[in-house]
Design goal:
The complex is a heterodimer. By secondary structure, chain A is α/β, with parallel strands linked by helices. Chain A has helices spanning 2-30, 45-61, 81-94, 106-119, 147-161, 176-191, 210-218, 230-242, 258-264, 285-298, 304-323, 328-336; strands spanning 31-38, 64-65, 68-76, 99-102, 123-125, 140-142, 166-172, 195-202, 223-226, 249-251, 272-275, 341-343, 346-350, 356-357, 360-366, 369-376. Chain A has a seven-stranded mixed beta sheet, with helices on both faces. The chains are: A alpha/beta, B mainly alpha.
Chain lengths: 378, 297
């Protein structure tokens, strides 16, 4: 009996040892490891899950770089700034990734930025639009436009196309993105001759906006600018309809999640926003290939966040290919000299400042679907 | 900012409606605290699970909404009993701090179990037609849901009040609150009474949660945290351990929050800070709350 046990134990040990050898060696030699940190749970989980689906689709379309297989390693940042910083240090120190894709929101990207900056590992964010994300940083990049552009376009659209003169704001003050975007909108709208009749605030995770909306209603605006994330947007629209706040609502790229429509229902009909990508407005060959592959796999329409997740991946792979190296500083140089890259969301160039120069689309909700209105180039 | 009368009435309605929800959740906190001296931090998460029961009842079992809501309330009551049986009863004679830590553990367990089982993305909660009507009086708009929330809250409150003060089991609960050891010596089955308390408290949380989910129609596994904490503030404000106090505290907290935002819309971001500021002030200057009689030891 005893001998049998010893033999079993020995076999298991040998098996484990063999497994470890196989695992460690396959990792070391023939793959390029790219870290991904995204909010897979928490308040903005939809962004993370959409972007991850987009990145995976992009990875299937382009699975190798420098002749090696790309290995993606995902860490959940739980929609939390501290978790985001932890995720970046784990990816760099423990997983030893060559570059990082992430994350969806501006504040959380900034939370991880200084760690990557110090370690000289490039981060490329799909959708962090706040200008401060890349400011004074050499290793932080993005494939999306930045908020001064987004705020200006929204203000112009409100003033010229919607003929609005009195704007009300409802701002999520817990998010750098929302606060800054509201300021850019305000600046431009006032410069054009409009006025801000009420500025109200909320916090991410708030569910009751009746007090703010009643105050907004009393200020008699002709446009409500709502530069917040999709859950808050949907609940605001729902409560605005209930309180009889009948003004057009204009929002930004954070709104483009299916939950906006599933939660908002009829109350989000006519809801407009500036966004990254609408499949009806897609022009590049890569976009057509991507949309087909994404939609056959995910059984849902390709939209802004997944498309930008894919673009972050494609741009990064392109840069590693051009750098002919997986060293951080070399990838960084290649990223900073990305010129006219035909990505999923359009043609983009990235400069020394880390920002992408590219167009923007205007979308609205019609018959329970996101619909393309127009494209605006910088 | 000057508020006109109709805007003020509208804000009062908003405040009472929010306050009713806080109150319903606070009742569960206060009942458990009253008899066990245990702050059941998992209470908000029990409420969250209640919402998911109702959601999946309608989605997976295609039950009519009322059957689904009823089933969710019963299942949540059962969940409350199971949590007590599995987590709190084993540490009943341990130092109080152990029970508190267990409660925090259960809270995290439910949240993370929710994340795994239900996914992190918010789900849209269905609001039945009967609750969807809107009545317009001039500038003031009242939702059917406001009226139903107020009525159901009142009904549930009266029911619980009657149970506590008019029935034998209620008398046993009050006795345990007074002196657990003596009550045991009198031949009362403590565990049965405590399980019953958890059932009632959890059922009230589920009812509050379902109304919450109809009012703010999205549910996610972390939705219970903030309402749970606010309800805790409400319970302390009213005097923890006192059911009437919990209801009053809930209403007051809802009104204060809404009226602050109404008076100073630019300060709206501070409403959570205000709620927890109230908690600190109450604990400093009147730890027994507005209606509490005894000082907690």
């Amino acid at each position: 009996m005893k001998a049998k046990k010893v033999i079993t134990a020995f076999v298991i040990l040998a098996f484990l040892a063999a497994l470890t050898v196989v695992l460690c060696c396959s990792k070391a030699s023939d793959t390029v490891k790219i870290g991904v940190f995204l909010p897979m749970t928490g308040g903005v989980a939809s962004y993370g899950q959409m972007e991850w689906a987009g990145i995976k689709t992009a990875n299937e379309l382009k699975p190798t770089v420098l002749g090696k297989k790309v290995e993606l390693f995902l860490v959940d940042e739980k929609s939390d700034k501290i978790e985001a910083a932890n995720a970046v240090s784990r990816l760099i120190k423990k997983e030893k990734v060559v570059a990082i894709i992430g994350t969806a929101t501006s504040g959380n990207t900034m939370a991880g930025a200084s760690i990557a900056e110090e370690a000289k590992v490039p981060i490329i964010s799909p959708t962090a639009t706040d200008p401060r994300v890349t400011q004074n940083r050499k290793y932080i990049f993005r494939v999306c436009f930045i908020d001064p552009f987004q705020g200006a376009v929204a203000a112009k659209y409100a003033f010229e196309s919607l003929k609005a003169r009195r704007a009300a704001l409802l701002i999520d003050q817990a998010q750098d993105y929302c606060v800054d975007l509201a300021n850019f909108f305000k600046q431009d709208f006032v410069k054009m001759g409009g006025s801000i009749v009420s500025s109200t605030f909320c916090q991410s995770g708030d569910q009751d906006f009746t007090a703010q909306l009643s105050a907004i209603k009393a200020s008699k605006p002709d446009i409500l600018y709502l530069p917040n994330y999709y859950t808050e947007d949907a609940l605001v629209c729902k409560q605005a309809a209930e309180l009889g706040v009948k003004v057009p609502i204009l929002s930004a790229d954070g709104a483009q999640a299916p939950e906006l429509i599933s939660i908002g229902g009829k109350s989000v009909e006519g809801f407009m926003f500036t966004g990254h990508f609408a499949k009806e407005g897609a022009t590049t060959a890569l976009a057509k290939q991507y949309i087909q592959s994404y939609e056959s796999k995910n059984k849902t329409d390709a939209s802004g966040f997944d498309a930008l997740g894919a673009d972050a991946y494609f741009v990064l792979i392109d840069a590693i290919e051009r750098a002919k190296s997986t060293e951080g500083p070399k990838i960084r140089e290649a990223l900073a000299s990305t010129k006219n890259f035909a990505g999923v969301s359009g043609v983009l160039s990235i400069g020394e400042d880390g920002n992408a120069k590219k167009g923007m689309v205007m979308l609205h909700v019609k018959d329970g679907k996101f619909r393309y209105l127009t494209t605006i180039n910088p | 900012m000057i508020i006109d009368t109709s805007a003020f009435i509208q804000q009062l309605i908003n405040g009472v409606s929010l306050g009713c929800l806080y109150g319903l959740i606070a009742i569960g906190y206060t009942m458990v605290y009253g008899i066990l001296r245990l702050i059941n931090f998992a209470h908000g998460d029990v409420m969250m699970v209640g919402c998911y029961f109702a959601f999946y009842g309608m989605l997976l079992f295609t039950l009519p909404w009322w059957a689904s809501f009823l089933m969710a309330i019963l299942l949540t009551a059962l969940l409350g009993v199971l949590i007590d049986r599995g987590a709190y009863r084993p540490v009943r004679n341990a130092p109080r701090i152990s029970a508190l830590i267990t409660a925090i553990g259960i809270s995290f367990l439910l949240e993370n179990l929710g994340l795994v089982l239900f996914g992190g993305r918010p789900k849209a909660f269905y609001r039945p037609e009967i609750f969807s009507g809107i009545h317009v009086f001039g500038e003031v708009r009242v939702l059917d849901l406001h009226v139903w929330t107020a009525l159901l809250t009142l009904l549930i409150f009266i029911l619980i009040y009657q149970i506590i003060y008019k029935t034998r089991i209620g008398r046993a609960m009050r006795c345990i609150a007074h002196d657990m050891e003596t009550t045991r010596l009198m031949g009362v089955d403590l565990n049965r009474i405590i399980a019953f308390t958890f059932a009632i408290g959890s059922a009230a949380a589920a009812a509050g949660g379902i109304m919450w989910a109809m009012r703010y129609p999205q549910i996610n596994p972390l939705m219970g945290i903030l309402p749970g904490l606010k309800a805790f503030v409400a319970a302390v404000l009213g005097g923890i351990g006192n059911v009437r106090g919990a209801m009053l505290g809930g209403l007051l907290l809802g009104l204060i929050e809404i009226l602050l935002v109404a008076a100073r819309p630019d300060m709206a971001g501070y409403r959570d800070a205000l709620a927890f500021g109230i908690l600190i002030l109450i604990l400093l200057f009147r730890p027994t709350g507005l209606m509490g009689e005894r000082l907690p030891e």
